[in-house]
Description:
- The chain has helices at 33-44, 74-79, 86-96, 103-122, 154-168; strands at residues 26-29, 49-52, 69-70, 127-132, 142-145.
- It is an alpha+beta fold.
- Strands 3-5-4 form a 3-stranded antiparallel β-sheet. Strands 1-2 form a two-stranded parallel ribbon.
- The two termini are 15 Å apart.
Amino acid sequence: MTRPMIDSFIADDTSLPSRWDQLVDVIVVGxxxxxxxxxxxxxxxxxxxxxxxxxxxxxxxxxxSDGVINAADPKRQLRLGIEDSxxxxxxxxLKVGNGKGNQAILEHLAYDGPNCxxxxxxxxxxxxxxxxxxxxxxxxxxxxxxxxxxxxxxxQRLAQILYEQCQKRQx
Length: 171
């Protein structure tokens, strides 16, 4: 994963092209979680994205995280005897934020969480069969990546999977 999606460009780099002649629909700046997901989502919409990454590795801060995705997912949680819901997740987020969060954004996070977990799974992310309880959460709803190698962080693996999917789709 040490190869960047697009060579690192530094302001005084003499390898910069003198002319950009590639036609794309969208330029994505950064190959972290948001950038990789954005690029893949754009491709699903039949758009042609290009991703620029300044670092020598893709993944951004995701590489340093555990890669745990906190989302109410009743389908998975019920199998584990956990009764959770997007409504409960929304309530928890509002409580933790002392009611100061943007209601529309929090609702989107809570209600679209299960779809995000499923989408990531379709991208090749293997989830462990259990979920964990993350800090300040009332319910165990932290989805953890399965099959990590010794010392590998979940965020590293998640970034690698998303990067490989970008390569597969010629992004």
